[in-house]
């Protein structure tokens, strides 16, 4: 496994692979890897000849007062896990390599970037889209792997790839959860023992939403109110949003139909956690 920190070196390496007729998979991450990340790696190894994982805590996607400085980092452990997972290269650039002095260009996926998490994290998805487009240009993957855990990110990046005619398939992998249901996240390490218990209201609220939808509830307001009720019962949790939206456009729904995304963000103590569920609703129940 090669560890690459320079853009030029990464381009040469993937250029050689491409010339040899090998397909390339990329899994972009911010490191502090867990099973969620490793599920993307396994899928890339299954589908592509060569796999690159990028580890870059991207300053451009953190707002002022967010956790850029304190975001957990452990490159040694991450490299060990990736070596064991059998990947071919880790791309681990320093921030000035990605954003040299004078950097001015950004990618905006308008409308989609302003909904859901975009409302409480202005500029976040502009930072994500920009860095991911750069990573695509640097690595030149045939397929890039992302998790449904960050559903809005995935939908935005699919839009970006389509709109800019990028020659990359955006592949989506299911959410990997802890045995008790909490979606895996590098930020879970911020939680105290009491907060970790309280965080379960997030998957529980989505489970309640699923139960109601499966029982025939088609009113989005009633559904999100019920999910919010579960979270509000937990004193350590504070709702940022719970919304039922169309999975393609992220527009809020009033009636639940088609491909529905129920997305939620909740502060547990100071830690902001996100989770979501997708359901296909065919027709109205009688
Ligand atoms: P991050 O390091 O948090 O930026 O995540 C890197 C990639 O891993 C993104 O595509 C995430 O959606 C994905 N990911 C993170 N956590 C999970 C999880 N629990 N299940 C599936 N994918 C995940």
Structure description:
By secondary structure, the protein is of the alpha/beta class. It has 10 helices and 9 strands. The strands form 2 sheets. The protein has a 6-stranded parallel β-sheet, sandwiched between helices. Strands 7-8-9 form a 3-stranded antiparallel β-sheet. The radius of gyration is 19 Å and the shape is globular.
In summary, what is this structure?
By secondary structure, the protein is an alpha/beta fold.
Tell me the strand order in the biggest sheet: 1-4-3-2-5-6
Portion of residues in helices? 25-40%
Radius of gyration: 19 Å
Distance between the termini: 57 Å
Number of strand segments: 9
Report the portion of residues in β strands.
Answer: 15-25%
Sheet with most strands = 6 strands, parallel
Bound chemical compounds: adenosine monophosphate
Question: What's the overall geometry?
Answer: globular
List the uncertain runs: none
Derived from helix and strand composition plus strand pairing, the structural class reads alpha/beta
Figure out the total of helices: 10
Mean pLDDT, to the nearest integer, reads 97
Q: What is the string of helix and strand elements?
A: EHEHEHEHHHEHEHHHEEE
């Amino acid at each position: 496994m090669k560890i690459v920190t320079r853009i030029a070196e990464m381009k040469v390496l993937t250029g050689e692979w491409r010339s040899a007729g090998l397909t390339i998979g990329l899994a972009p991450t911010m490191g502090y890897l867990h099973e969620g990340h490793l599920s993307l790696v396994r899928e890339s190894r299954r589908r592509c000849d060569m796999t690159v994982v990028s580890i870059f805590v991207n300053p451009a996607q953190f707002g002022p007062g967010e956790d850029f400085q304190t975001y957990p980092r452990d490159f040694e452990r991450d490299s060990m896990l990736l070596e064991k997972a059998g990947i071919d290269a880790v791309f681990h650039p320093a921030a000035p390599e990605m954003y040299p002095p004078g950097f001015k260009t950004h990618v905006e996926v308008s409308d989609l970037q302003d909904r859901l998490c975009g409302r409480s994290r202005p500029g976040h998805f502009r930072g994500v889209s920009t860095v991911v487009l750069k990573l695509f240009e640097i690595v030149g993957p045939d397929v890039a792997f992302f998790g449904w855990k960050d559903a809005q990110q995935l939908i935005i990046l699919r839009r970006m790839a389509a709109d800019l005619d990028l020659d990359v398939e955006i592949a989506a992998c299911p959410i990997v959860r802890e045995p008790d249901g909490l979606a895996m996240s590098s930020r879970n390490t911020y939680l105290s023992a009491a907060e970790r218990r309280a965080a379960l209201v997030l998957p529980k609220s989505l489970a309640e939403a699923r139960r109601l939808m499966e029982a025939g509830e088609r009113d989005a307001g009633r559904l999100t109110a019920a999910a919010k009720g579960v979270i509000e019962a937990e004193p350590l949790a504070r709702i940022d949003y719970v919304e039922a939206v169309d999975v393609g456009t992220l527009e809020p729904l009033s009636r639940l139909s088609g491909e529905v995304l129920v997305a939620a963000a909740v502060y547990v103590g100071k830690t902001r956690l996100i989770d979501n569920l997708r359901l296909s609703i065919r027709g109205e129940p009688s």
